[in-house]
Amino acid sequence: MFRTLKVLLTSALVKGLVGQFVAWALGYAFIAGLRALRGMPTPWLYEPAVAFGGIISVIGFLLAAGVLTDWLKWVVGKRTPLRHGTPEGKPEWSRYVNVDYNHKVIGIQYGITSLLVLLIGGSFAIIFRIELAQPSMQWLNNDQFNTLFSAHGIVMIASILLGVGAMVNYLVPLMIGASDMAFPRLNAFSYWVGLPAVVLILMGMAVGGWDTGWVGYATLSLRAPLGVVLFLLGFWINGFSSIASSINMLVTTATMRAKGMTLFRMPIFVWGAAAASIIQLTSTQTVGVALTMSIAERVLGLNFFDPAGGGNPILYQHLFWFYSHPVVYVFVLPGLGVISELLPVFARKPLFGYRWVALSSMGIALVGFLVWAHHMFTSGMADALRVPFMFSTMLVAVPTGVKFFSWVATIWEGKLPKNPPTPLLFVLGSISVFLIGGVTGPILGTIPTDLHLHDSYWIVGHFHATMFGGFIFPFFAALYYWYPKISGHMYKESLGKLHFWLMLPAFWVMSIGQMSVGLLGMRRRVADYDPALGITTTHVLITLAALVIGWSVLIMIYNFIASARMERVAETNPWRSRSPEWQIPSPVPEFNYDVPFEVVGDPYDYGLVGSSYIRDALPAPSGD
């Protein structure tokens, strides 16, 4: 126990957190010292000092954790060979709390952090959902409620981004036959720079919170409590993670594919990850500009958005949504890639319309940049923009529909198992939930209906259906499916199915209930409602459903922790997959592929006699 505690306390994670708080204090003291030299008093929690300390704290975290060490040594001319494997004298688990350059370790770090942040954000939702179960204020005040729902939104989005990072980092190099990502140190930086960003957001809750929602709209952000400054900074810092990881992903996919793996021989998940990375690379800078302008207006007194000083608050919304609508597809495209990846494996037949499905991911990424202003039909933007954005919003249904038709056609006359394993259950559940999100979306993209439903709980239900169906359910499917590859053990199937059968009905109750109260007049982002609306019973059901969803996720986490030691050792290829990562031992060796392989066929030709995908590796399963 003492040795374990020593390893943990000397880890990069703990050093980084200590370094962050020390650096924040130094940054704050620097501004206070400058003011003292000029004979000016510094109030406690002076905003410019808090903001400057927040920026310095991120640098302090990265320096103390050792994320920048190799680059700094390189600057002064020292050799910095990549380190591989567990450090001498340290346990294997220590790799996951220290800076490591192996893409599989980084993928697991992303995944564990995603689940932890998911629990934090989910707990915020449970707290304010209990408040909403009855009309009038029970045990939260308005400021506490506003902070909780605002933090819930941004923390859950951070969790989903971390989950995307987990899947992309762990799977893409394995799927394309690479030994690692193109830039291992940049890959580690992408993960570690996100941690102090999350800490800043959580610190914002402790210094007054904020009431702007996760969108941080000006001019609300200009009048919100101090916590909004740390929220905006954390949001801004996290953009560095998105940009760096997207560059790494695109370069890896472009330059490190195995021999014979042309673009249209890549696993379909890689197409989804590539499309998502294109969005991240090209749109994140836009929200970075909006956040920079908000921070500068708040802290430095510049004027961009405040109408009292000649600013334009609609400008913030254009900049914000030009990023934030496409970023929905950053979450969804990898999730839809998981569905398309797993269905052929369990149906034992080729993925229907592989090329159309691959190109539809790029189509969604392209059209996603043309629809942002449907969030602004009620904002006061130019009326002439409404109709073009309504039609462009409808256009998104075309590439999305391609995926739905492919899934149905792949299932049609397939050989789905009579007793579906947990990954397949979550894939099928995700299709049903994402369908709810899909059919409720056009109602918000059409001007007349959006004017009625905008800022109602209908949007809350629609958005949750889109996120759960497009990412959360596929993410859980991926965790169960690749768990044997990651851990070398099978999970407990009965607990996996319990997780699914608790979560799916509970989610339907929650999402449909949210849309129902929205139709009856319930506004989103409000702490109370009129009992005369007759929606109290529905709110109770929504709250109970949210609690059930939370318990189901805890069951999954327990299942994974317990199964890593107690369950049987997994076969090399328990799913009979053709994908390259399933042709090598589990867990995956340090350098992935000891024997290079060549791609000679199509990735999803299940059921075709004599068909093969790769050679010069372990034999692929025969067509059945």
From TrEMBL:
InterPro entries attached to this UniProt entry: Cyt_c_oxase-like_su1_dom, Cyt_c_oxase-like_su1_sf, Cyt_C_Oxase_1, Cyt_c_Oxase_su1_BS
Membrane topology, from the record: Multi-pass membrane protein
TM annotation in the entry: 49-72, 110-130, 150-176, 188-208, 228-251, 263-283, 327-347, 354-377, 389-412, 424-445, 457-480, 500-520, 540-561
Enzyme class, first EC level, given as a word: oxidoreductase
Biological process per Gene Ontology, one example term: respiratory electron transport chain
Annotated PROSITE patterns: COX1, COX1_CUB
Subcellular location: Membrane
Classification via Gene3D superfamilies: Cytochrome c oxidase-like, subunit I domain
Keywords noted in UniProt: Electron transport, Heme, Iron, Membrane, Metal-binding, Oxidoreductase, Respiratory chain, Transmembrane, Transmembrane helix, Transport
GO molecular function list: cytochrome-c oxidase activity; heme binding; oxidoreductase activity
Broad class of the protein's primary localization: membrane
Domain Cytochrome oxidase subunit I profile residue range list: 87-601
One Gene Ontology cellular component annotation held by this UniProt entry: membrane
EC number: 1.9.3.1
PANTHER family referenced in this protein's UniProt entry, alphabetically: CYTOCHROME C OXIDASE SUBUNIT 1
Functional note: Cytochrome c oxidase is the component of the respiratory chain that catalyzes the reduction of oxygen to water. Subunits 1-3 form the functional core of the enzyme complex. CO I is the catalytic subunit of the enzyme. Electrons originating in cytochrome c are transferred via the copper A center of subunit 2 and heme A of subunit 1 to the bimetallic center formed by heme A3 and copper B.
Family as reported in the entry's similarity comment: Belongs to the heme-copper respiratory oxidase family.
Record-given protein name: Cytochrome c oxidase subunit 1
